[in-house]
Specification:
The chain is an alpha/beta fold and 310 residues long. The chain has helices at residues 2-12, 22-35, 67-73, 100-107, 129-138, 158-171, 185-190, 201-209, 222-233, 243-255, 258-267, 275-284; strands at residues 17-19, 41-43, 61-64, 83-85, 114-119, 148-153, 176-178, 194-197, 214-217, 237-240.
């Protein structure tokens, strides 16, 4: 796709390019060089740590989620003027004020229970195979948590939705609801008290913006491991890998609802619901400010030891 992207850049002559993926960032840097254009390149990592493959020397602005990420960039000789702590951009409406009672009533959810969202849906089901298997193991014990009501979100996966409905009927689970595809997630998240989810960067950021404490379920690798480490170190969420651990965490929260409030307070340190606006504003400020590139045969740089290793 690289030659096609370069041709596209030559024809469109963009005034600015914002990249939220490493491959896109490196490809656009190459296209800028080959086309001889001078548009700014802004990189927006959507996790809570910086991969080494981001084009550090050729990026005109990094919009990162935390100060810890900026600390990772500094040994790689990224100038302070090229870094801004903005948070991770998410969909609009998260964190807005909603009438919780009205939302719960419209969705048939109880007003007097802790609503637990189980975010188990995605366009591709493969990443959720183990997540769903663990939830299946926990299903028989949900009736033992009467102060909680569990809302499963299978997304567009009708087969998984049917499986959950059959399990609910077979086990006579009264405190459980299976929803189809939800197009008003900000409202549903605002009406909930806890989320069980994977530790993907966008998922956890949406929960942070919606003031929704999290139980992160499953082993995490790569960037998701960095996300898990960040959230648990700050006391924003709990991390479990097995059904036994999950049930232990839920029983603790069931008996000690004040723990949910503590996670909410801790989450304010990472909560940045205006990230998309701040990134757009900071990016637009760069337009027309990129100097003529110096001609050279090759360029090398040697950075310092990374601040955070994994």
């Amino acid at each position: 796709m690289f030659p096609a992207l370069t041709d596209y850049v030559e024809k469109r002559k963009p005034a600015l390019v914002i990249c939220t993926h490493i491959t896109a960032a490196n490809a656009i840097v190459g296209a800028r060089m080959l086309s001889g254009q001078r548009f700014p390149v802004v990189c927006v990592p959507t996790d809570y740590e910086i991969e080494g493959w981001w084009p550090h020397k050729e990026t005109d602005l990094f919009c990162v989620a935390t100060e810890a990420m900026a600390e990772t960039l500094r040994p790689r000789k990224v100038a302070e003027r090229k870094m801004k702590i903005t948070g991770i951009p998410v969909r609009g409406g998260l964190g807005d004020a909603f009438d919780v009672a009205e939302i719960r009533e419209s969705l048939g959810l109880p007003l007097d229970k802790t609503i637990v969202l189980i975010m188990a849906g995605a366009h591709l089901p493969q990443p959720y195979v183990r997540f769903r298997a663990t939830m299946d193991e926990a299903l028989p014990y949900m009736n033992g948590l009467p102060k909680m009501h569990f809302v499963f979100l299978p997304g567009r996966d009708e087969e998984y939705s049917l499986h959950l409905c059959r399990q609910q009927e077979a086990m006579s689970i009264e405190n459980m609801t299976v929803m189809g595809y939800v197009d008003k997630m900000p409202a549903l998240m605002a009406a909930s008290d806890l989320a069980i989810c994977k530790s993907g960067g966008l998922t956890v950021t949406e929960c942070l913006c919606a003031r929704l404490p999290m139980v992160l379920l499953g082993r995490s690798y790569g960037q998701e491991k960095a996300n898990t480490r960040m959230l648990t170190s700050l006391g924003v969420g709990m991390h479990v890998t097995t059904a036994r651990e999950l049930l232990g965490a839920l029983r603790h929260l069931h008996a000690n609802p004040s723990s949910l409030k503590a996670m909410l307070v801790n989450g304010e340190i990472l909560r940045r619901p205006d990230a998309a606006y701040d990134i757009a504003a900071s990016s637009l400020d760069l337009m027309g400010s990129i100097p003529e590139p110096k001609k050279h045969f090759a360029q090398f740089y040697w950075g310092g030891k990374p601040a955070h290793t994994r």
